[in-house]
């Protein structure tokens, strides 16, 4: 049972990336990560997003895969960690052969740490 | 590793149903889904519930399985997405041969979207 | 697919322990569980912790494994259920051969139930 737990945790954790790693990379000239804001809400509801993120609602993602870059790693996020939208987007990206992970703690955690956002 | 991630995400997401799908179904004359409110709190603490839900505390679920209908799909929910009570109820239902899933974002998400609730 | 869901849920739930079980055990003279507060924040940010917990930031855990007791079961917790820090600590502990699980609903849930905390 311990091995099953360990394998489960390894796979689970491999789906996530923490905000520190993302933020440090985004400050580099040739950053590897691209943030995708997969919230389905309109801009009037979203109001702001993580600085430098691309708005890519999960419901539209499949139709926009050809615009994405296979040399990048996409970091998806939704409002909070409690939703399943980020994992839906992640499944779409991984199934299409992209490198992708979910931002640990989502937008809520990013804002809670007072990390950079921008008005949209 | 990508295949493991994809399989993990597929199984994870198969456990959930989103509020839109549930709400549309509940508005049909012959709805397929039945909401089970599995919170263990007494009614005085719960105060309200999703409109049309059946109060079925997770701690009592095993004793009430014979009252459930195998032609329905049960949608369980707890207070928030962060608890494990919904998944405990889900395991009980699936192990007993019922179709069941967990409401994505739980009661908190339902109320956040201002979807219909009722006083209890 | 039902078997995959059931196995997934069993493994997922085996990672967690609920606050009632922990609290009852901690009230025994020879308790089995030891709470590890794995938050990485300094004490000035944390302010309080679960009563009797040991402060063991996840970032320092690997360096302190030799101080832990293989006859105990370690219960890790972070601020909320939405973070991945608890699961990172859990993976470290299980991989090193310790018995360990994560506190369901984390510190947030413990405080929400008004269970005992202590100033640090």
Automatic annotation (TrEMBL), chains A, B, C:
One Pfam family from the record: Rhodanese
Task: Read off the InterPro entries from this record.
Answer: GlpE_sulfurtransferase, Rhodanese-like_dom, Rhodanese-like_dom_sf
- Could you tell me what this protein is called? Rhodanese-like domain-containing protein
**What is the protein's species of origin?**
Levilactobacillus fujinensis
Residue span(s) of domain Rhodanese: 29-119
Q: Which SMART domains does the UniProt record give?
A: RHOD
């Amino acid at each position: 049972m311990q091995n099953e737990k360990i394998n489960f945790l390894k796979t689970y954790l491999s789906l996530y990336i923490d905000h520190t790693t993302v933020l440090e990379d985004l400050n580099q000239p040739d950053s590897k990560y691209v943030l995708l804001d997969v919230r389905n809400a309109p801009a009037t509801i979203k109001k702001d997003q993580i600085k430098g993120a691309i708005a890519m609602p999960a419901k539209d993602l499949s139709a926009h895969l050809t615009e994405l870059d296979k040399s990048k790693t996409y970091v998806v996020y939704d409002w909070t960690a409690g939703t399943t939208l980020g994992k839906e987007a992640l499944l779409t990206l991984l199934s299409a052969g992209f490198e992708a992970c979910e931002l640990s703690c989502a937008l809520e955690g990013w804002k809670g740490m007072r990390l950079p956002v921008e008005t949209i």
